[in-house]
Amino acid sequence: MNRDEAKELLKGRKYNIITFGCQMNEHDSETIAGMLRDLGCEEVVDPRESDITVINTCSIRENADKRFFGTLGQLKKIKERNPDYIACVCGCMMQQQRVIDAVKGKYPWVDVIFGTHNIHRFPELLQRVCTEKQKIAEVFEDSDEIVEGLPSKRLYRHKSFVNIMYGCNNFCTYCIVPYTRGREKSRRPQDILAEISSLAGDGVKEVTLLGQNVNSYRGTGHDGQAWDFTDLIYGINDIEGIERIRFMTSHPKDLSDKLIQAYADCEKLCNHIHLPVQSGSNAVLERMNRRYTRERYLELVEKLRRAVPDIAISTDIITGFPGETEEDFTDTLDLVKRVGYDSAFTFLYSVRPGTPAAEYEDQIPEDVKHERFNRLVDLINAGSAEKNAAYVGRTERVLVDGASKKNDRTLTGRTEGFKLVDFAGGRELIGTMVDVEITEGKTFSLRGRLKSEKESG
Ligand code: 5AD
Ligand code: SF4
Questions:
Q1: In the sheet where 52-57 sits, what is the strand order?
Q2: Does position 137 have pLDDT exceeding 80, yes or no?
Q3: CA of 88 to the centre of ligand 2 (A)
Q4: Residues whose beta carbon lies within 6 Å of some atom of ligand 1
Q5: Considering the chain, what percentage of its residues have pLDDT values greater than 90?
């Protein structure tokens, strides 16, 4: 069978993609979906109805590993019923040899394995499985090449993720990402701007720029000129049709005054920053290799608030990092109170084999980790509820994302500060910007009332 015949064979097949992990993975899954659509395949939600399943894996914490192996076990039954079924696994976990060996050894029904560096090769691998009728595992080492122009099947019509860089050079001692996603590589600014202009032409109003540490973006323009992250923001701010710019994630050690100034200068840059602190203790921050102190972090927050008084700030915090004492943890609680976060993702420290912290001898017992985690979550939630309550009576500009699953007449969207708002309205408003008066502030979301055009003026 040749390539064209293989393509013909794949046409009309049903696929589903199961995605674990972060926005980066979600966006990779959009690319995989775009490639499958170009091959003539159709998406289905239920893996039992599909001819091709792709599991896009995450390795950031141990429970992501466990969920992946559980899901993989379920595919066996589908394969037994349908011998033509193609099971594919990709993503961060497939950049680890121990995982590839486990998949090959214990889950022989898997047909295709690929990593984070060779997503563009997926159609070819799929066709090879059809033609060669044998299992394929292809995980490339890190390379300098960035493949441009891949298709994408976006989750939303009106908003989109845009990768600006790949990989991470920071080596925080708990984190597996530098080992799975490789070294930092920035896309060329002209490629990013062209992609966003084309998205704007296609009706996209909001872009979220993605990178493990967007602040260390370093691009080279046509003329050889160096572009940093803030230059990119200014460039995107000029693109007609784009109304909102977001980004994630930002590393405090690289957050520049120039970026803080951009908040003031660029009306499209949303008044929100996700600024992971991880811990409020200097001793823990040092052992995490974060390369900032709590004082420096608090200073950054103050600068941000001075430049943008109503900026919403969210963060990531890990509890139970090896060696964390009760005093260290109290420092974290204290920092949380001082900053007054709008929201936070909280994580129990999870040992990642191959990272330096996995070797630290002073691991924290699970019950202590959990007890601290619960105290932290209570504090964060109380802070979020207080912040959200203060929104009552304010009018917020909301980009409408969709209708609520429970009630067709309830819409949901995000404020500029990334707060989720529910309000009554018709589906025709999905994808538009509306004004909503906030009537209630809950812990994780706001409720509001849609203002009429006349009220909005
Ligand atoms: N254990 C717990 N949390 C982790 N994170 C990354 N690695 C680990 C780990 N080993 C968290 C960090 C990071 C977020 C994406 O995941 O808080 O910011
Ligand atoms: Fe992991 Fe640290 Fe890189 Fe973030 S900055 S991806 S936490 S190593």
A1: 42-43, 14-19, 52-57, 86-91, 112-114, 136-138
A2: no
A3: 27
A4: 60-61, 174-175, 276, 278, 316, 318, 347, 349-350, 352
A5: 82
